[in-house]
Amino acid sequence: MNRLPTIISTSARSPRLLHTTTMGSSSRVQLVSPQEVQAQGLGKYRVLDSSFHLPNSGRSALDDFRRGPRLPGARLFDHDLVADRSYTLPNSPVKLGHMLPDIHTFKLHAQLLGIARNDHLLLYDSLGLFSAPRAAWLFNAYGHPNISVLDGGLPRWIHEKCPVETGAPSPPPEPSEYVLSGFPEAHAREKVVSYDAIVQNFTKTPTEDELPAMGETYRRLLGPEDCQKVFLNALDNHAPTWELLINGQKKVVVSCGSGLSACILWLALHLYHPNAIVLLYDESWTGYALRNDAPIISLSA
């Protein structure tokens, strides 16, 4: 198994957490159930199908959306379009999709989706809870005030017999006026860390601020009252560091294959530890490994 030199993993080698700065935002994200949405009425929301499928999955989010089923009135949020397209240029050191776009690209696609700044967004995906958190992270990074993620996504929506659409979707909406005046792009940029920052981080003292993530054999289900105790036991003498993280006194960086599923971790911390400062290594493992000079630790299985 290969990994970055400083990342939370299931190996015995402990990582360090990155020290960077970030700015707060009034934007908050909430998790809502299908029944909560039904009780409020879909008309309260601007619904975005935020599905994404990995290249080897044999599925297309666009084809699935066009065919249905989908939530009534949903519009498709394309992660690879609402992105920094410079990563696709020939001179880019790494070729990646769905990286954080600049403010003009973000605003343009929000307008093309017919979104207004005061719209309450409802984001879902077709796998349950996979790529919708990435869309939530992006809108949160640009300070969109009202964002909800559908708990369980389309599968749960269908399972609970909520209404769906099939066949050709509605025509594209009229472009909206998405107002971002007074919102600096720097606020969004401070939600991510770069490759250079990752490399700089692990050149520091390797034993400072480490949290282990040892894999343990699954044994039994735990009741809610046991969960906090078990997690603290797993952290052992690192519990004080965990307390610093969830209280926002230290920062934590989340990472994955390409900066998408790591946003599930971001969402969990955002929901349950709102004071935590959670940053995303947007390029994640794919961008890191594509760089010829990137230090990589190889571990035996």
Automatic annotation (TrEMBL):
PROSITE patterns: RHODANESE_3. It holds the Pfam family Rhodanese. The keyword Isomerase does not apply. Residues 41-166, 246-297 form the Rhodanese domain. SMART domains: RHOD (SM00450). The keyword Cell wall biogenesis/degradation does not apply. Keywords: Repeat, Transferase. One of its GO terms (cellular component) is mitochondrion. One of its GO terms (molecular function) is thiosulfate-cyanide sulfurtransferase activity. It comes from the Eukaryota. This is Rhodanese domain-containing protein.
